[in-house]
Design goal:
The protein is mainly α. It has helices at residues 3-29, 37-54, 71-81, 83-101, 105-128, 144-169, 176-204, 206-234, 249-263, 271-285, 290-302, 312-316, 323-329, 332-340, 347-354, 376-390, 402-411, 419-430, 454-457; strands spanning 58-59, 66-67.
């Protein structure tokens, strides 16, 4: 075996071997977080963050090559969830990104092993020097000395492994010193942001990860707009229209995000997707144009995103809520609207999210709007969501059949719901217009799961 082959073998097998040795030792040595619904939701959002960032290489200021900033959330996950869970999130996130972008799975597994190694070594240093294990599970201050030491170790390990990789594989045609320097610079720049997001996660819960996802979507939208503008100004021809079956990455990411959030609340599992798909059909029947329909779909998907700021115990606890708890629950439209408003081009959707609990008689919240002051998108969502809530099973009651739900909608038409939207929805439902579309099949399947607005959003 020549020296080049030996070097390659040492890297390909050496990094995973070290990881496999370190992680069990870390699992034994370091305390694991106490998992609950809120912490699982946070971990799922961080998994999405790692995977999404890994699909988005960016060019650092002053540089020409593009690099992935996944280390930001790798290090943040270590602070939030401790070493072993963070390593698993880093590995699974990269594999998911590779499958979505059709990158080489073999190379991705190598990158995953590198990140897991940096997490393991820096995590052990952090906790051995007095850092708290999993600040998202046990909120605590981020001690300065352990955090800075861990950042330094993470950066050095990342740079060392990058140099090892390039010396062994030589795929990029650069020197080992250059590879190490590039990696060290990248990690040194992004790690403080990882600390900041970890601190936000510890103090705010899942809403911090949700806001991070919104920021990433924002960056994708801005980059897409920049590319489109550059293309349109440099060529006289109009951009080629996107094929009808070509998925909108931003919309798909929002759908994935809301599916993850819904899955951790037994009262809303699958709710956002059902409401969005049905709201689109109703909006088209009411004559909204294509631009308005897009705003309605985004708003319907994100109408409950503000619930991530509400403690899960309030959302799921049986029994009557206190006045303060009801007031807290009623803040979710405003919180959701603030989050959605950060995405360029969704100002109308943000307003719909803010007003989706307003009522024609002015008894809704948060602003007590009446009649035509309430956007059409909000009128649609309130009817679709109410029907979904009434026809879904709950632990404390059985779901209504369709005919009984129709009666309830009509009984409250003019006070809680808008009459024209109620009648349009009932006509579409009775004519099976929703079921005629394959993508809506699950929205009106037999109600066996617990979904909908429920008492906790009423």
């Amino acid at each position: 075996m020549n020296s080049a082959t030996s070097s390659r073998v040492s890297y390909v097998w050496g990094v995973p071997a070290i990881v496999l040795a370190l992680l069990p030792a870390a699992a034994i040595r370091l305390p694991m977080p106490e998992w609950n619904g809120g912490l699982l939701l946070s971990a799922a959002i961080w998994l999405l963050l790692i995977g999404l960032v890994d699909t988005m290489p960016v060019a650092l200021a002053g540089g020409t090559s593009r690099t992935r900033l996944t280390a930001l959330f790798d290090f943040g996950a270590m602070l939030c969830f401790s070493v072993v869970p963070a390593a698993l999130l880093a590995g699974l996130g990269r594999v998911g990104a590779a499958l979505l972008t059709r990158r080489s799975l073999r190379a991705t597994l190598g990158e995953a092993a590198e990140s897991m190694l940096a997490i393991a070594v820096s995590g052990v240093v952090f906790f051995e020097r007095g850092g708290t294990a999993g600040i998202a599970a046990h909120p605590a201050a981020l001690l300065f000395v352990p955090t800075v030491l861990a950042m330094g170790v993470f950066a050095l390990v990342s740079a060392g492994v990058a140099a090892w990789r390039d010396a062994a594989l030589g795929e990029r045609g650069i020197t080992t010193a250059t590879a190490a320097r590039e990696q060290l610079l990248t990690v040194a720049i992004v790690l403080p942001f990882g600390v900041a997001f970890a601190w936000l996660e510890a103090t705010s819960g899942p809403v911090a990860g949700t806001c991070a996802l919104i920021l990433i979507l924002l960056s994708r939208r801005l980059e897409s707009n920049t590319v489109s503008t550059t293309t349109s100004t440099s060529t006289p021809t109009a951009p080629r229209p996107r094929p009808a079956d070509d998925l909108d990455p931003q919309l798909e990411t929002v759908r994935l995000l809301m599916s993850a959030i819904d899955a951790f609340d037994p009262f809303t599992r699958g709710h956002s997707g059902r409401i969005a798909r049905a709201s689109v059909v109703v909006a088209r029947r009411l004559g909204l144009d294509a631009r308005e329909v897009v705003q309605v779909e985004y708003a319907a998907l994100l109408h409950d995103i503000g619930r991530t700021a509400i403690h899960l115990d309030i959302l799921t606890r049986p029994g009557t809520l206190s006045g303060d708890e009801v007031a807290m629950l009623h803040t979710h439209p405003a919180i959701g609207s603030q989050i959605v408003s950060r995405i360029p081009g969704l100002d109308e959707a943000a307003e719909i999210v803010l007003t989706h609990h307003e009522q024609p008689d002015g008894r809704g919240y948060p602003r007590g709007l009446k009649g035509n002051a309430i956007p059409i998108g909000s009128r649609i969502i309130m009817v679709v969501a109410a029907f979904d809530a009434m026809t879904r099973e709950r632990p404390y009651r059985r779901g209504l059949d369709a005919a009984s739900a129709y009666q309830e909608l009509r009984r409250h038409a003019g006070t809680q719901f808008f009459s024209d939207v109620v009648e349009t929805y009932i006509q579409l439902h009775t004519s099976r217009a929703f079921e005629a579309q394959p993508e809506l099949a699950d929205a009106f399947a037999p109600a066996q799961d617990a979904g909908g607005e429920g008492r906790r959003a009423a």
